[in-house]
Amino acid sequence: IPFLPDRFNRDRDPLKFYQYIALGKPIVTTTAVPVASRYREICYPADTRAEFLDQMERALAERLDTDLLERRTRVAKAHSWPELISGALTTIELRLGQGRTDSRRCERGEA
């Protein structure tokens, strides 16, 4: 994910990051996006062009690591639409003083 370090990218949370890790794919990304530091243990962050190329080589040489695959999948699942919607509904209801929502209501179309 070769984003440039600018004000716009500093606040991005690229969907493709989660799509790639859902498949267990290694990701090389610039540190311009927050996911690079937030999830540095499951991706290959780089600051410079040389680092980016080095990290690409590391990612291409990556061997099957079931623990790493599980960590990537867990992060991807936490950012799936059902999880994001459930979290949003919970936050809204808590702000409105109605208590915690059963996340299954959203999945059943009751929200």
Structural descriptors:
single chain, 111 residues, mainly alpha, two-stranded parallel ribbon, 7 helices, 5% strand, flat
Description:
This protein is 55% helix and 5% strand. α2 crosses α5. The protein has a two-stranded parallel sheet. The termini are far apart. By secondary structure, it is mainly alpha-helical. β1, α3 and β2 (44-46) form a beta-alpha-beta unit.
Compact description:
By secondary structure, this protein is mainly alpha-helical. It has helices at 7-10, 15-22, 34-38, 49-60, 66-78, 81-95, 104-107, and strands at 28-30, 44-46.
Strand-helix topology:
Layout: H1 7-10, H2 15-22, E1 28-30, H3 34-38, E2 44-46, H4 49-60, H5 66-78, H6 81-95, H7 104-107
Parallel strand pairs: 1-2
Helix pairs in contact: 2-5
Mean of all residue-level pLDDT scores: 87
Helix content: 40-55%
Low-pLDDT segments, ≥5 res? none
Main beta-sheet strand count, sense and barrel state: 2 strands, parallel
Would you list the SSEs in sequence order as H and E?
A: HHEHEHHHH
Oligomer: single chain
Strand order of the largest sheet: 1-2
Tally of DSSP helical segments = 7
What class do helices, strands and sheet pairing give? Answer: mainly alpha
Gyration radius (Cα, Å) is: 17 Å
Number of strands: 2
Shape: flat
Our measurement of the CA-to-CA distance between the termini, rounded to an integer number of angstroms, reads 35 Å
How much of the polypeptide forms β-strand, as a percent range? 5-15%
